[in-house]
UniProtKB/TrEMBL annotation:
EC number: 2.3.2.27
Cited PROSITE patterns: WD_REPEATS_1, WD_REPEATS_2, WD_REPEATS_REGION
Segments for region (Disordered): 1-26, 38-60
Subcellular locations according to the entry: Nucleus
Source organism of this protein record: Perkinsus olseni
Name of the protein this chain belongs to: Pre-mRNA-processing factor 19
DNA damage in keyword set: yes
Length: 292
């Protein structure tokens, strides 16, 4: 099913319309408007001044964040104390808080489902959980765990829903990655285990068609691309900069961005296999993504 959906998306890619890329000078002029931690500290007071729900522990720091790509009011935040909190950004209220880890190990990755009232959490404990709304069709309510957690064996650093909406792509700090099948009653289960690939670094990304996966090998200094259809690595490129810590594909699938511990960001044209812009961040690049 995943392969069939990928082929359909690939065939229609050229027909999709996308905004033009910002020019390099415009990108360099971007400014930081706030940190993830400031965004997550949404005021939980209602207009009347009353507290709607209890917030996450005040001693917790933000360790992961996701904003719904269609409904920007939904923001999911993972904390260092083992909890994840769903916020309504429009009303500045806390919707609910779930406990990913009872031993209070950090929630290191979070991802809202694009089409359903579901979200996933991954943690430093190596576990991945999926949560669903307690009220069908509503997102502003309590969320409950679905099934048992799936263990990945090492801290989770990447979560992304496959374009089918029926699977979750997961990668870990050790380089292991897998595709987990979603059952809305039983939870997650292993569908494809890709621990035999050459991924050994922190950087990982899924092509928007859901058919290609890129990852960095810190032993060889190469970014490799794995094809789901061919079940093999189909390309590998030596990076001009070492210590790639983050990478991402653009929504149209034609470009890729890479970031390093040294704060260097490069934009790549995958059709020509060349980089066309270099930017410098204020510090190490831990995550990177394109605007839709």
């Amino acid at each position: 099913e995943a392969v069939a959906v990928s082929e359909k998306l690939m065939s229609g890619r050229k027909k999709r319309k996308h905004p033009k890329l910002a020019k390099e000078d415009a990108v360099k002029a971007y400014t930081v408007q706030g940190t993830a931690e400031k965004l997550a500290q949404a005021d939980t007071a209602t207009p009347s001044g009353k507290r709607r729900r209890k917030s996450a522990p005040s001693n917790a720091t933000v360790s992961a964040i996701d904003i719904h790509f269609q409904d920007n009011d939904r923001m999911l935040v993972g904390g260092s104390a083992g909890c994840a909190t769903l916020y309504n950004r429009a009303t500045k209220t806390t919707v609910c808080t779930v406990t990913h880890s009872t031993d209070k190990s950090a929630v290191t990755a979070v991802k809202l489902h694009p089409n359903e009232e579901l979200f996933a959490t991954g943690g430093a404990d190596g576990n991945v959980r999926v949560w669903k709304s307690a009220k069908e069709g509503e997102w502003e309510c309590e969320y409950v765990a679905v099934g048992n957690p799936v263990s990945m064996g090492s801290p989770v650093n990447y979560l992304e829903w496959h374009p089918t909406g029926e699977a979750l792509v997961v990668s870990t700090e050790s380089g292991k990655w897998a595709i987990l099948k979603l059952d809305r009653e039983e939870g997650l289960s292993h569908m494809i285990d890709m621990s035999n690939t050459s991924a050994t670094g922190e950087a990982f990304g899924m092509h928007p068609d859901g058919s290609l996966f890129a990852y960095y090998n810190d032993k060889t200094g190469c970014v490799s691309v794995y094809s789901l259809q061919q079940k093999a690595e189909v390309a590998s490129a030596k990076m001009p900069h070492a210590n790639v810590t983050a990478l991402a594909f653009s929504e149209n699938g034609y470009h890729m961005a890479t970031g390093t511990k040294d704060g260097e960001i490069k934009l790549w044209d995958l059709r020509k296999a060349t980089d066309f812009a270099t930017l410098t961040a204020a510090g190490p690049v831990e995550d990177i993504s394109f605007d839709h």
